């Protein structure tokens, strides 16, 4: 089961196009699009009034409420989504290899646009481990704007404040820290001086997808980074990533 | 001997699964031995004023604190070797520009691979799946991450066929995007296997020899469906609107 989300940045337009088909085959015709949002500390499921055609559901800013996420399901399944205030995995409609994706496109008022094939797998909503991602690998010192959008979806209907750090792994210092929230697309502006090969975006108790955006002369680039374990194919990948993250935990401990 | 037998049994089972199309193993990395460096197939393009940037991490430095070196091998779209370079001292994160000057005046497109090298036994298989960016006319690089692991390198021997192929059955790979919203798009398709494939783009047939690649122009098509016997034929998409460009994997 995958969720889909929007950017929630008032400076940009975004359109989320959720396909009604898998890579290899079509979805069941009974499949519907549902929205999921928090109201009075509880999850609420809605039926979004969005545009659609034979192939896609389209969520644009006019049809989107901030922080709302979307998922595909049949009516009969939706009743099982929320139990004890938490969200549960209710289907495998979007469990495909490669992953079932929606196209998330951002654009500015000058016509610049960029997109990536996006999803938020259910397995991630149960996690509250941290993430580690290079700051410089997808950002650009020569750009006019550099932004990290950090999206989290958490199975409990809470907006919890967590800390993110920009850490220099070479001189072992914390260069910046701030707050990111669960169940939100967080926007973090990155100053040019933070774009350095040794600098990492790091969180300790919130997971999510970091999407890197830069804008130059009205042109946009928008792409997510891989988690570190993606670079290791052998069975020791999780130990190696744990060891790597330990170094960043140590830097935080020594700097507090 | 026992472990060799295990590997054989595993590979034989994978072979049977793929042959019969019963839970096929689309990406098979189980045969890779420790200290192997795997590379995705990265697209470079220098035609039509394109410039490519490759942003990559020293994976040995990141995980093992070992300064590695890399070998970059460039092929044209017909998998003809164009250039091989070794970079002895790499940084943690590296930017590598591929323009027509670097390609000795070649204005075309093709693929390149990166292999990390170390003399130490690090008992790990690493994959470089980093990021390429594409720009025209000195605008911004539009980035896309590595797509599929394709070639491996161990002790300078290049090994192949991580992406599986069905013997008998065609597979659809429908790109989950509406292509009608753009002036036009280009679909970059690379044959990830060591044998020729026939594929259909919206029922129009094409042939690609081993590791060859092609860019196909698309206009006035809403859905792009790639049909082939390849288990994953995942393309890179370039979409154009007015003077703006977007690049992403399919």
What descriptive keywords fit this protein?
heterodimer, A: 256 residues, mainly beta, 2 domains, five-stranded antiparallel beta sheet, 41% strand, B: 250 residues, four-stranded mixed beta sheet, 44% strand, globular
Descriptive report:
The complex is a heterodimer of chains A (256) and B (250). With 256 residues, chain A is mainly beta. Chain A has 3 helices and 20 strands. Chain A has helices at residues 75-78, 122-125, 237-255, and strands at 2-4, 13-19, 32-39, 42-46, 51-52, 56-60, 69-73, 82-83, 86-87, 102-107, 113-118, 120-121, 132-134, 145-152, 161-168, 173-181, 184-189, 199-203, 209-216, 219-224. Chain A has a 5-stranded antiparallel sheet. The longest helix of chain A is centred in the C-terminal third of the chain and has 19 residues, at 237-255. Chain B is mainly beta. Chain B is 10% helix and 44% strand. Chain B is built from 2 helices and 20 strands. Chain B has helices at residues 2-20, 59-64; strands at 37-40, 42-45, 50-57, 69-76, 81-87, 93-98, 109-117, 126-128, 131-136, 142-145, 149-154, 157-159, 171-174, 184-190, 197-201, 204-208, 213-218, 225-228, 236-241, 244-249. Chain B has a 4-stranded mixed sheet with strand order 8-1-11-12, with no helix packed on it. Chain B has a 4-stranded antiparallel sheet with strand order 2-7-4-5, with no helix packed on it. In chain B, a hairpin with a 4-residue loop joins strand 4 (69-76) and strand 5. The longest helix of chain B has 19 residues, at 2-20. Chain B is globular. In chain B, 43% of the residues are buried. The interface between A and B is large, with 55 and 54 residues.
Oligomer: heterodimer
Low-confidence stretches of chain B: none
Written as H for each helix and E for each strand, in order along the chain, the element string of chain A is EEEEEEEHEEEEEHEEEEEEEEH
The CA-CA distance between the termini of chain A, in Å, is 39 Å
Q: Report the total helices of chain B.
A: 2
Give helix and strand order of chain B, one letter per element, not per position: HEEEHEEEEEEEEEEEEEEEEE
């Amino acid at each position: 089961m995958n969720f889909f989300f929007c950017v929630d940045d008032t400076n940009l337009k975004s359109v989320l196009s959720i396909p009604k088909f898998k890579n290899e085959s079509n979805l069941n015709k009974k499949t519907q699009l549902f929205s999921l949002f928090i109201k009075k500390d509880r999850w609420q499921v809605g039926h979004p009034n969005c545009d659609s055609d034979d192939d896609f559901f389209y969520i644009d800013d006019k049809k989107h409420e901030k922080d709302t996420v979307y998922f595909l399901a049949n009516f009969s399944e939706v009743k099982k989504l929320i139990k004890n205030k938490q969200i549960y995995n209710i289907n495998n409609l979007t469990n495909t290899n490669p992953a079932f994706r929606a196209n998330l496109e951002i654009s500015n008022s000058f016509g610049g646009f960029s997109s990536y094939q996006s999803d938020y797998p259910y397995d991630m909503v149960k996690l509250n481990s941290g993430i580690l991602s290079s700051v410089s690998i997808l950002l650009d010192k020569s750009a006019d704007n550099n932004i990290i959008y950090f999206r989290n979806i958490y199975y409990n209907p809470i907006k919890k404040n967590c800390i993110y750090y920009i850490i220099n792994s070479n001189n072992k210092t914390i260069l910046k820290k701030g707050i990111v929230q669960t169940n939100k697309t967080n926007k973090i502006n990155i100053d040019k001086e933070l774009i350095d090969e040794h600098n990492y975006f790091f969180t300790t108790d919130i997971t999510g997808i970091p999407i890197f955006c830069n804008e130059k002369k009205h042109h946009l680039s928008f792409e997510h980074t891989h988690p570190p374990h993606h670079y290791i194919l052998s069975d020791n990948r999780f130990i190696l990533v744990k060891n790597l993250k330990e170094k960043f935990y140590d830097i935080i401990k020594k700097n507090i | 001997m026992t472990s060799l037998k295990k590997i054989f049994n595993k590979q034989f089972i994978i072979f049977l699964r793929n042959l019969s199309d019963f839970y096929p193993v689309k990406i098979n990395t189980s045969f890779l031995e420790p200290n192997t460096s795997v590379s995705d197939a990265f697209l470079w393009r220098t035609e039509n004023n394109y410039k490519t940037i490759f942003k990559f991490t020293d994976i040995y430095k990141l995980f093992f604190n070992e300064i590695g070196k890399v070998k970059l091998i460039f092929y044209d779209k017909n998998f003809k070797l164009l250039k091989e370079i070794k970079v002895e001292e790499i940084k943690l994160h590296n930017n590598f520009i591929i323009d027509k000057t670097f390609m000795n005046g070649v204005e075309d497109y093709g693929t390149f691979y990166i292999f990390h090298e170390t003399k130490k036994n690090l008992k790990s298989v690493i994959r470089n799946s980093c990021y390429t960016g594409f720009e025209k006319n000195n605008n911004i690089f539009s980035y896309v991450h590595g797509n599929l692991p394709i070639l491996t390198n161990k002790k300078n021997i290049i090994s192949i066929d991580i992406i599986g192929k069905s013997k008998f059955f065609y597979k659809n790979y429908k790109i989950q995007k509406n292509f009608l919203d753009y002036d036009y798009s280009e679909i970059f398709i690379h044959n990830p296997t060591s044998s020729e494939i026939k594929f259909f783009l919206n029922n129009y047939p094409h042939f690609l020899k081993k590791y060859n690649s092609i860019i196909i122009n698309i206009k006035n098509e809403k859905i792009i469906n790639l049909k082939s016997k390849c288990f994953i034929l995942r393309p890179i998409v370039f979409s154009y609107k007015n003077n703006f460009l977007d690049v992403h994997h399919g």
